[in-house]
């Protein structure tokens, strides 16, 4: 079994390299911050009282991923955040977080806010899913 490559000098194909591996840096001495991942649904009265849309409490019915990252002794101006479809890359002078997300997200439709009193960065990302019997909008 031999795979043909476009470039003769490459030793592996792009399909063999996992997404997000370009962010991996095992020699970086910065510590990993504490974080928490939660899921958020947009529900209305038709969901709560009547169950008309077929949503349930599972993550398969959630529209957003909310990631809360604890960043003690960090200023907002020191935070560098990069969001890809399946990877969140956060860097500060003292902390570094490379997080492979549980679901693909729309990297263009996210928002982040820094809660300075709690020293927490809250990142909300829209999950991008294919349309199916649960996700029909």
From TrEMBL:
Instruction: Give a GO biological-process term.
Output: flagellated sperm motility
Top-level taxon of origin = Eukaryota
Alphabetical list of InterPro entries matching this protein: DNAAF6 (IPR026697), PIH1D1/2/3_CS-like (IPR041442)
Per the record, its GO cellular-component terms are: cytoplasm
Annotated Pfam families: PIH1_CS
What are the residue boundaries of the PIH1D1/2/3 CS-like domain, all occurrences included?
A: 32-127
Q: Where is this region: Disordered?
A: 1-27
- Which intervals carry biased composition (Acidic residues)? 16-26
What GO molecular functions are on record for this protein?
Answer: dynein intermediate chain binding; protein-folding chaperone binding
* N-terminal signal peptide: none
Q: What is stated as this protein's family in its record?
A: Belongs to the PIH1 family.
Q: Tell me which PANTHER family the record gives.
A: DYNEIN AXONEMAL ASSEMBLY FACTOR 6, TWISTER
Q: What's the name of the protein?
A: PIHD3 protein
Provenance organism? Cinclus mexicanus (American dipper)
Lineage at the top is:
Eukaryota, Metazoa, Chordata, Craniata, Vertebrata
């Amino acid at each position: 079994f031999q795979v043909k490559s476009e470039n003769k000098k490459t030793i592996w194909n792009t399909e063999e390299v996992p997404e997000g591996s370009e962010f991996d840096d095992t020699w970086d001495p910065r510590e990993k911050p504490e974080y928490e991942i939660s899921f958020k649904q947009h529900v209305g009265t038709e969901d709560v009282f009547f169950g008309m849309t077929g949503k349930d409490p599972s993550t398969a019915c959630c529209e957003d991923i909310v990631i809360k990252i604890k960043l003690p002794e960090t200023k907002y101006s020191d935070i560098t955040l990069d969001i890809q479809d399946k990877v969140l890359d956060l860097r500060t002078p003292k902390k570094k977080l490379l997080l492979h997300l549980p679901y693909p997200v729309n990297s263009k439709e996210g928002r982040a806010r820094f809660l300075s009193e709690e020293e927490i960065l809250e990142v909300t990302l829209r999950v991008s899913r294919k349309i199916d019997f649960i996700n029909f909008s």
